[in-house]
What does this fold into?
Amino acid sequence: MLKLRPMALGSNPKLADVARAAGVSLATASRALAQPDLVRAKTCERVRDAVNMLGYVPHGAARALATRRSKTIGAVFPPLDNPIFAKATHALSRELSQAGYTLLLATHDYDPGAELLATRALIERGVDGLVLVGMDHDPGLYRLLERASLPYEITWSLDHGGYHHCVGVSHRLASVHVAQHLLDLGHREFAVIAGETAHNDRARDRLAGAREALASRGIGLPSSRVREAPFAVAAGKAALAGLLADAPGFTAVICGNDPLAIGALLECRARGITVPDQLSIAGFDDVDLAAELTPGLTTVRVPSAEIGARAGKRLLARLAGKRVRRMEEIKAPLIVRGTTGPAPA
It folds into this structure.
């Protein structure tokens, strides 16, 4: 067990601190991390123990440039098979490229541990800043960023506590507007197909907004009429089938994203359920296909490209020493199309 000298909270450990804690020279500590095959196994283990206990993160730019600027920005995103994330990364990359920066991209499958590893890898590559998605992260991620003294932007979500720089939309409020639209059309029996809420604050906020709007009109949402499903059309089909089997009688379905809503719409077609005459369906995100369906999908338009571009602008401004307000909210309007209509008589 290594005995370490206490360090000030929020300090950024240096390689010299690692060498001191491990009881080796600075050159040996450097060699153990860069060329472990040239160092005895026990010595490497002591150095790795010191790295882990101190929270030391090698900074690639510090090794290469005295200015600690690599002209690269890292982004850690959920899977890019979600078209809204693909649009955002394209806009972010374009914004950074115009300023002479390169985007380094890593992805994870809503796994906080994998996201933490990806973030550490980008910091070790020497990125000048980071872009993250949402507020749900491994607690170690924020400690890692603090130790590295690295600027970052949270995207998609808003931190009303004011702790993190962020640019995004109010998913809860947008979902409230969806439910209010259906309530104003006379619907009183609802079901919800939510995205998977574990490690996803956006999915939780969208579900919470629907519950809040219904409760404000004295309408409950029993657990039997709520399904969580992965981001996939097939999952939306299966979720609606399950709801119709277990808790029928609803006239409106609020979906946590557009693929789930499209899946629900396809399940209605397969069963001969007319939309919106017998069942109204609403989505969230406004993917390109939403407007091309027949009927077109009522949904919330999340301006993903604008979020990506704004995140880039904000990081570049901060790297240039400019002050940027902590939270920037972008509007997410409800787009009413043909899948929602008056409740059946």
